[in-house]
Amino acid sequence: METQHSGCRMLLFTGDGKGKSTAAFGMMSRALGHGMRARVIQFVKSDSAVGEQKFFSKLPEVSWEQFGRGFLPRDRKSPVMEEHREAAAEGLRAAIEALGNPQYDFVLLDEVCFALANELMPVEPLLDALRSCGSGKIVVMTGRNAPQELLEIADTASELKMLKHGYQQGIPAEKGVEN
């Protein structure tokens, strides 16, 4: 039996493979090509010199914000984790605002799954905002270790699996490939 979709469209890219954010930015390109306005909210990431930000942030149809402090410390009990939690909380507030804002047709929550999986913020406020976002809005979420709650609410979820990665072979990060 077919059911009519109500509310926003939710897509999720997770897994240990490369390409989650790349897929999301490809979808954003498609949306922009159709005249949509987009908002990018990045969790965890803090590098403003990556190619996608340098390109998309020039476009007047794109609003871009980073709410990250970079790589998380291996010791999750480190005092530095509090800075990461504060940044994620700011990002969560921005995400909730973007999801409720009719100005944006496309909202990309980059690395939101990673932030949730590392307990930088609670999942329930995000779920509430996703459940109430308006029809016609597209929401794309990325990051490793997507929580089950996001997998259940997403319309489409893809898991990217790493088969091999150049980094494992000693190939350093390269402009146009990793950043």
UniProtKB/TrEMBL annotation:
Pathway: Cofactor biosynthesis; adenosylcobalamin biosynthesis; adenosylcobalamin from cob(II)yrinate a,c-diamide: step 2/7. Keywords: Transferase. GO terms for biological process: cobalamin biosynthetic process. The keyword Transferase applies. It catalyses: 2 cob(II)yrinate a,c diamide + reduced [electron-transfer flavoprotein] + 2 ATP = 2 adenosylcob(III)yrinate a,c-diamide + 2 triphosphate + oxidized [electron-transfer flavoprotein] + 3 H(+); 2 cob(II)alamin + reduced [electron-transfer flavoprotein] + 2 ATP = 2 adenosylcob(III)alamin + 2 triphosphate + oxidized [electron-transfer flavoprotein] + 3 H(+). Pfam families: CobA_CobO_BtuR (PF02572). Its EC number is 2.5.1.17. It is an enzyme of class 2 (transferase). One of its GO terms (molecular function) is corrinoid adenosyltransferase activity. InterPro entries: CblAdoTrfase_CobA, P-loop_NTPase. CDD domains: CobA_ACA (cd00561). It comes from the Bacteria. Belongs to the Cob(I)alamin adenosyltransferase family. Required for both de novo synthesis of the corrin ring for the assimilation of exogenous corrinoids. Participates in the adenosylation of a variety of incomplete and complete corrinoids. This is corrinoid adenosyltransferase. It comes from Chlorobium phaeovibrioides. The lineage of its organism: Bacteria, Pseudomonadati, Chlorobiota, Chlorobiia, Chlorobiales.
